[in-house]
Specification:
Strand order of the largest sheet: 14-18-13-17-15-16
Shape: globular
Radius of gyration: 23 Å
Strand content: 15-25%
Structural class: alpha+beta
Largest sheet: 6 strands, mixed
Length: 560
C-alpha cells in the first residue's frame, strides 16, 4: 500500500534533537511561579514560510498545528513517561471493527458544530476524505487511500460528483468504512488529517487552505504566507466535550519564515512578547551552545525521550551488496559513537545508539541487538565477514547519497571514515532535497549504493516503522524503501500483521518482523534521535510524550 507523504525527519536534524540539560519532557516550567489558565495570546515562532491548513493536503501530527483548528474521528492520549494510546475525538469511541477487520464503524458525538454554527455530519467526514483523492488536493497522508480505493481508481468528487462507495453514511451520525482488506490500525488511520470534516460541497476552490471551516478550538482569522497567521477562538467549541485539547490561549499568533538564529536569540533573551512565545523548530547545535550559557534558557528547554530513527540504507539490489553477509559487515563497520559526535558534539546530546528498526514508545517493540559491538564499531569483525564473502581486500567504489543541508555532509563523513577503517571505501554524493527525492525515492533502480536519512512514523504503531521502509511495494515511485529490500515472505508477514486487530498480538508480529528484516541487514540502525524545543518564561505545560517526539500543542498555554 502506498503510504503517501509520511512525516520524515532529515538525518541531519539529529544535530538539532538533543538532550542538553536536566530539563526534560516531564518538566512543565511555570514561568513566574504561576499556573497555566485560560486566556492570553500565545506566539508561535516558525522558520517555515507556510502552514498547510487544508486537511486533505496535510501530513500534520495529531499533537501539532492542524489539530488547533481541525478535529478528526480519533485522537491520541499523550503524556510523558507512558505509551501513547488512541482515544475518541469527534467519534463516541475509537471505532468498531467487524468482518474480520475489513469494516469499521464510527458514530459521531451529539451536538458537534463548526465555527459557523452549522452541525458536523457524517457526510462531512466522507466528503473530506473524498476531497483527498482529487489530484488538486493531494499531498497529505495517504494511509486510507488504497484501503478505500484499491489502485487509487477513485479521483475525487469534483469530476461528475462521483461518490466513494466504500464509505457509507446511513444517517447524520454514522459513518461506515468498507476496506479492501483487514486492517487493524484503521482506528489510528482515522486520526490522520484527511479524517477531519469539511462541510459537504465546500472546499472545491484552490484556496480553501486560506479559509478552512474549523471544527477545533480555534479558527483561522488571517493567514499571509511567509509572514503570519492568527487564530481566534471557535465559539462553538467546548473544552468540556473535547477532552484532548486544553486550548488555553484566547488567541495564537504565528510568525512565519523566521531565521532560526533570530528565533533562538529572541527566546534566550526572553523579553516582551517573546516571554509568551514557543519555538516550533528544533533547537540547533549553534542555538544549544548559546543556551548552555544561559541558566534561564536551560530551564526552558524541553526534550523528548526519543525520536526518529537515523539509519544507513544498503542497496540490496546493487553490486556486492546483494550478499547479506556483505551487508552484515556494515553493522560492525559503522562507528555509531562517531555518528553521535557528528550529530551533536557528543554522545549524550545526540540520542541513544539504535539497534532495532522499531523506535521506542511503540507497542510491541522489543529491545535486542543482533550485531553486538562497541558503539565505536568492530572493524576486525567487519573485515572477517567481508573475507568470508570473498572480499579479503574489502570494498571499493561505493557511493553514499545524502542531503546537502542540515549537517548531512558532516554526518556522512563520519560514516565514510568508519567504513574506511573496515576496508570499505565510499564517495559521498550530497544532493538537494528535490534531487534526492527524484534520484533515490522515485527511481525504481537507484544509482547509489548507500543512503543516509531518518524516519519518524506518523502514527504510534510499529506498522509505521516497518511497512513503508521494507515492503517491496515501496520501492521507487516516491516510496521510502531506499534499501530496495524485496522479500516475499516479509511482504506476506507485513500483510498478516496489518490484518491483526488485537494490538498486543499485532505488536508481537511486528517485533518478529523487526528481527527478521534486520537479520537480512538492509539497513544499519544508527540513533534514536532526540528533539529539543525552547520556549519563553510565560509559557507553561510544555510537554512531550513518549510518542511522538514533538511538544503537544494542545496542552500548553500562558502562565496567568
Amino acid at each position: 500500500m502506498k503510504r503517501g507523504h509520511w512525516l520524515r525527519l532529515a538525518a541531519g536534524t539529529s544535530a538539532a534533537v538533543l538532550l542538553l540539560t536536566a530539563c526534560g519532557a516531564n518538566d512543565t516550567p511555570a514561568g513566574q511561579g504561576g499556573t497555566v489558565k485560560p486566556g492570553g495570546n500565545l506566539v508561535l515562532l516558525d522558520d517555515a514560510p507556510s502552514i498547510t491548513w487544508d486537511p486533505a493536503k496535510s501530513s500534520n501530527l495529531v499533537v501539532t498545528t492542524l489539530g488547533l483548528i481541525h478535529r478528526r474521528l480519533t485522537s491520541w492520549d499523550v503524556a510523558p513517561g507512558k505509551d501513547t494510546t488512541i482515544v475518541p475525538d469527534l467519534a463516541t469511541d475509537t471505532g468498531r471493527p467487524s468482518d474480520g477487520g475489513k469494516t469499521w464503524t464510527f458514530t459521531l458525538k451529539d451536538g458537534l458544530k463548526y465555527a459557523d454554527g452549522t452541525p458536523i455530519k457524517s457526510e462531512d467526514v466522507k466528503w473530506g476524505l473524498e476531497r483527498s483523492f482529487a489530484p488538486a488536493f493531494s499531498g497529505g497522508l495517504a494511509y486510507h487511500k488504497d484501503l478505500l480505493s484499491p489502485g487509487l481508481a477513485y479521483k475525487g468528487p469534483f469530476d461528475g460528483g462521483k461518490e466513494l462507495d466504500t464509505i457509507q453514511t446511513p444517517d447524520a451520525k454514522t459513518i461506515v468504512f468498507h476496506l479492501a482488506r483487514a486492517y487493524g490500525d484503521f482506528n489510528w488511520v482515522a486520526s490522520t488529517p484527511a479524517f477531519s470534516p469539511v462541510p459537504k460541497g465546500k472546499g472545491a476552490e484552490a484556496n480553501y487552505n486560506d479559509h478552512p471551516v474549523a471544527s477545533g478550538p480555534y479558527q483561522l482569522q488571517s493567514y499571509e504566507r511567509g509572514k503570519s497567521a492568527k487564530l481566534v477562538r471557535n465559539p462553538n467549541w467546548s473544552r468540556d466535550e473535547d477532552t484532548t485539547r486544553k486550548a488555553y490561549a484566547d488567541t495564537i499568533d504565528f510568525e512565519l519564515g523566521q531565521d532560526t538564529s533570530v528565533i533562538s536569540k529572541r527566546l534566550i533573551d526572553d523579553t516582551g512578547k517573546d516571554r509568551d512565545a514557543f519555538g516550533m523548530s528544533f533547537a540547533s547545535p549553534a542555538q544549544l551552545a548559546q543556551i548552555q550559557g544561559s541558566p534561564s534558557a536551560k530551564a526552558r528547554l524541553v526534550t523528548s525521550e526519543s525520536g526518529a530513527l537515523s539509519y544507513l540504507s544498503l542497496n540490496t539490489q546493487r553490486g556486492k551488496l546483494v550478499d547479506p553477509k556483505v551487508r552484515q559487515a556494515f553493522q560492525y563497520a559503522v562507528d555509531k559513537a562517531a555518528y553521535q559526535v557528528a550529530s551533536a558534539g557528543n554522545a549524550q546530546l545526540a540520542g541513544d545508539v539504535a539497534t532495532t528498526l522499531i523506535t521506542p514508545g511503540l507497542q510491541g517493540r522489543e529491545q535486542y541487538d543482533l550485531y553486538p559491538a562497541p558503539p565505536s564499531g568492530d572493524p576486525a569483525k567487519a573485515k572477517q565477514l567481508l573475507a568470508e564473502a570473498g572480499l579479503p581486500n574489502g570494498l571499493d567504489g561505493l557511493v553514499l547519497a545524502t542531503h546537502n543541508e542540515n549537517g548531512y555532509p558532516e554526518k556522512a563523513a563520519a560514516i565514510q571514515a568508519s567504513l574506511a577503517r573496515a576496508g570499505i571505501k565510499v564517495t559521498i554524493k550530497p544532493l538537494d532535497e528535490d534531487t534526492y527525492t527524484s534520484e533515490v525515492d522515485t527511481k525504481g533502480l537507484s544509482d547509489y549504493d548507500l543512503t543516509l536519512t531518518s524516519w519518524q512514523p506518523d502514527i504510534p504503531s510499529a506498522n509505521a516503522n516497518i511497512q513503508p521502509l521494507f515492503q517491496s511495494t515501496e520501492i521507487g515511485n516516491g516510496g521510502y524503501n531506499e534499501s530496495r529490500y524485496s522479500n516475499p515472505d516479509v511482504d506476506r508477514l507485513i500483510a498478516e500483521a496489518q490484518a491483526t486487530i488485537d494490538p498486543a498480538e499485532a505488536g508481537k508480529k511486528w517485533a518478529a518482523l523487526d528481527k527478521k528484516i534486520l537479520a537480512d541487514s538492509p539497513v544499519v540502525p544508527l540513533l534514536y534521535n532526540r528533539n529539543s524545543f525552547l520556549h519563553g518564561s510565560q509559557v507553561g505545560d510544555v510537554r512531550i510524550g513518549r510518542f511522538p517526539a514533538y511538544v503537544d500543542y494542545r496542552q500548553f498555554g500562558i502562565v496567568q
